[in-house]
Design a protein that fits this description.
The complex is a heterodimer of chains A (500) and B (398).
Chain A: H1 12-22, E1 29-36, E2 40-47, H2 53-64, H3 75-83, E3 89-91, H4 94-102, E4 106-110, E5 116-119, H5 149-159, E6 165-172, E7 178-185, H6 191-202, H7 212-219, E8 231-233, H8 236-244, E9 248-252, E10 258-261, H9 265-268, H10 279-308, H11 316-326, H12 333-353, H13 356-376, H14 382-397, H15 401-421, H16 423-439, E11 441-442, E12 445-446, H17 460-463, H18 492-499
Antiparallel strand pairs in A: 1-2, 2-4, 3-5, 4-5, 6-7, 7-9, 8-10, 9-10, 11-12
Helix pairs in contact in A: 5-8, 10-14, 10-15, 12-13, 12-14, 12-15, 14-15, 15-16
Chain B: H1 2-18, E1 29-39, E2 45-52, H2 70-74, E3 77-84, H3 87-97, E4 101-103, E5 109-113, H4 114-119, H5 122-130, E6 139-143, H6 147-151, H7 161-168, H8 179-188, E7 193-199, H9 202-205, H10 207-212, E8 219-226, E9 229-234, H11 236-245, E10 254-260, E11 263-280, E12 286-302, H12 310-339, H13 346-353, H14 355-361, H15 365-371, E13 373-384
Parallel strand pairs in B: 1-4, 1-5, 5-6, 6-7, 12-13
Antiparallel strand pairs in B: 1-2, 2-3, 7-8, 8-9, 10-11, 11-12
Classes of the chains: A alpha+beta (500), B alpha/beta (398).
Chain lengths: 500, 398
Amino acid sequence: MNDHNTPLASRIEETQEMLERFLNDCSDASMYHFRIGEQLSGMFVFFSGLTHEDRMDELRQEMAGWRFHPDNTTFQQQFQYKITGLCSEEISTLEEIIDHITTGSVILLVDGIDRGYAFSLAEWRKRAIEDPAAESVIRGPREGFTESMIDNRAMLRRRLRSQKLKMKGIEVGRITQSHITIAYIEGLAAPELVREVEDRIAMIDIDGVLESGTIEEYIEDQPYSPFPQLLSTERPDAAAAGLLEGRVVILTDNTPMALIAPVSLFSLLQSPEDYYERFLIATAIRWLRYSFFFIALLVPSGYVALLTYHHEMIPSALLLSIAKSREAIPFPALMEAFMMETMFEALREAGVRLPKQVGAAVSIVGALVIGQAATSAGLVSSPMVMVVAITGIASFLLPHYSVGISIRLLRFPMMFLAGIFGLLGLLMGIIGITIHLCSLRSFGLPYLSPMAPMMVGEWTDVIMRPPAWLPRKRPRLTNSGGGLRNKSGMHVSKLHRKQE
Amino acid sequence: MRHLIRVIAAIATVTLLTGCWDRIEVNDIAIILGAGIDQEKNNRVKLSVEIFLPSPGGNEAGDGQEQMDSQNKNGNILVSSATGTSMADAMSNLQERLSRRLYWGHNNVYVFGKERAERGFNDDLDFFLRYVRARERTNIYVTQGRAIEVMGVIPRLDQNLMEALTELSKTEVSIDVDLKKVMEQIVETPEQTYTVPYILTSAVMSEKKHLRNANVPYFKGLTIFKKGQMIGSLNNELTHGYFWITNQIKPSTILTATVAKEETIAVHLTMSKSKLRPKIDGSGKWTMDLLIECEGNLIQNASQLDYSKPEQIMQMEVLFEQMIKDKVDKSLNMIQQKYKSDIVGYSKLFRRKYPKQWAIAKSSWSETFQKIETNTEVNIQIRRPGALVKQINNIPME
């Protein structure tokens, strides 16, 4: 942002005047005068709240005790000699001062020197590392990313203790100057992929980036698609797993949401916990999730289609009981479904927004309104309540909120197609979505891989959750190296026997 | 972008043009649960249908539990009828009287009155097979009296007549006969002979009688059709014999044989297989070998015979074999001599084995069929005595 370079004046009053002009109306900017030894006067410039003020005070006290002796060098030269070991950087322009103090550094200006000295004493109040609220697991680490980039990077580094884990920094946002870190593992992530991510992020030209969502919208391949093409997670273990698969993780400062790219639809349907549970159970849960993916998308529209056009397809006994409960309902099935689904979405949204204390009340009212009162009042039939409830639960079964919400959105056009064309419309919708998914790419990775294009070798991780000891190739499209993720491909008990 | 919006708008217009022209809500249909067809005077046909009355269940709070008393159940069905010169005509007359569209998709029962069946119901079958909304897998029955009376019968155990009849078709005394099966028989047999389950008159079936005499089944054997007309019927006992011949005996059947006066034994069948082998010998005599093999367990022994003695088991088996043989012969006699219609499927077997001779005999199959001699051989094995080996009367003192 600061293209001009205004050199610092050597007289401290002059610099202060310049700074005050720069920082007018910045009431949180502080300038703090003190003496260095007996001969020199200095000034700290910083933003209060961003710096460790105790440490700054210690520094001041130490410098106050410095003694300068009149000899053939000036006091300033003696001071410079002493300070070089202490400060982190020497700066010479006013703009550099601003850059430093906004990140929390303290600048020391000394009378008679046209330079400033930066001390990185950045420290501010931040949230502690907590259980990730949106992605909680039963088994697995309990810590989630926080708003602090430093902590987030440390959490990744702690998991991947190798110099191969690279973290490149970029600043995005003309005013916000947000720090973005692109993390990848050298040798696993394809260099082209890393370059592509870097290029795309570097091209972002925007006033401010407040959350990773902005980055996501800028760099995803198909901005009009309802499907997320980057995976956002607040779990460091999920991010680390992504890195190990040769993916790139994008961390954004001031948000706990990290982005993982590229992703396919199937990786969006997986939860990190799948890999912590026993594999048989995890496999069963995966199947459950896949089937509920379709249930969430198709059940309301299927119900509408059957009830409006294809009564033959409902078992006789069921049709009779549906007919019985629908007898007094004044609306067509499509209207009924649309009303209930909208109501459900409204309740869900209200539940997210409302404070915790009110949330419980809303859910009680919601359950009563949807479940009981609506049927008693004859507005909706009870099978429809069932359908809406099943769909609602199904969409929350998907581990990533972003997928669940896109499925929930697609439900509505599907319902209208079913209401207008019956099962033919439903099929048209499915075909449309399939075509869209087939053409979708996330950073060059086909969205439906490994199903389309077909890569049978990678199906094991889609159809089931393979046991950890099974030989597993690294995903083909994302990595550059290839090779196996585990060497032996045998269970420990067999290895043991082999050694004997 | 503008282009895209135009395309979307165009597509949207197309969908709006069609509207929902063929949309039929569940509230707009009259679900037919059963249809009865009767003969009327002046060669008119009367169609009566059992229509499901959806009584709204949602007006009370928490409607989940449905009331199970029969009062409620009885109120669920409406029987309506209309006459016409043909089935199609009768249906359109019926439709005029109903505010909802007649919906055939879930109908599973056609009941023909005896009179209509005797007149011949090929015209009606033509309608049911041609009309797209009617299913081919619908069961057909013939009733002793008038079909419209059967429509009004409310069974106690099942929800409606449709369910009661289809479930009962699966028991020992009956078979499932649907339109598809009738069609197959019509195509395959030289004289279009087939059987259709015969059900009782409504007076016998109605509730009060039923309560007093619960073991009266709905079924009264089979009716025999020849060239689209009903020519007679087999009672339950003869039907049993017919089942032995055609390998349709169900493995849950219980057989009772009389040993001596007031002494019976009963066997529960676990397996049964009937095999027919056609033969034409040198002299041009047509015969059929029938081999019946079955297995069963003893479930009651009210006789002096002792299962623990091998020679007495043999004795039991012989009794059963004789009984089955008698039944089969009786049925065959009836079918061959009285009705002269090949409902046992001999023609198919002869056609397969002796196509040339069959082609000659085809034109006068009734006569040929009448003369076919059947040699029945029955082989039953009583495998297990049940939990009690000895008879109670004979248990020795400890």
